[in-house]
Amino acid sequence: MPGFVHSDFAPVVVAVAERCLRRGYGSAGVPAGVRTGIVLVSASGDLASAQHVRATVEAGGRIGPLFFFQSVPNSVAGHLAARWGLRGPVVCLSPTGDPYTDGVAEADLLRDDGDADEVLLILIEQAPEKPTEAVAVLLGGGARP
């Protein structure tokens, strides 16, 4: 994915989010009047990039500029919002409890406060020596999980 290097964090976020949005809206995309927010939940964040940066610094190397951009999960969430024309808020959380419960609670706040009509909830985790795991669900339309 252009603008993101070394790690599968951003490409996996985009893949699950786009699969979810296509399932909900097809190729037409989100209707113009719908405010769709994004809540991205990850305890580890982009672990692969963080480990690469740490190892490079410890070895006295130079960090490439793209790592400064992608080191914040908001960058991939903003990329998604721009790519899909989403007009709601973008929030990234590191959960203190159950990731799904914390994410749904934040999504409910955004909807209940009137900041979003619906929320694309994305849960993603990277673990050493394991594949990145992610899931996305579109919450809205009056239905609560």
From TrEMBL:
Ranges where the Beta-ketoacyl synthase-like N-terminal domain occurs: 36-128
GO molecular function, one term: acyltransferase activity
Alphabetical list of Gene3D superfamilies matching this protein: 3.40.47.10
Protein origin, superkingdom: Bacteria
UniProt-recorded name of the protein: Beta-ketoacyl synthase-like N-terminal domain-containing protein
Organism: Micromonospora noduli
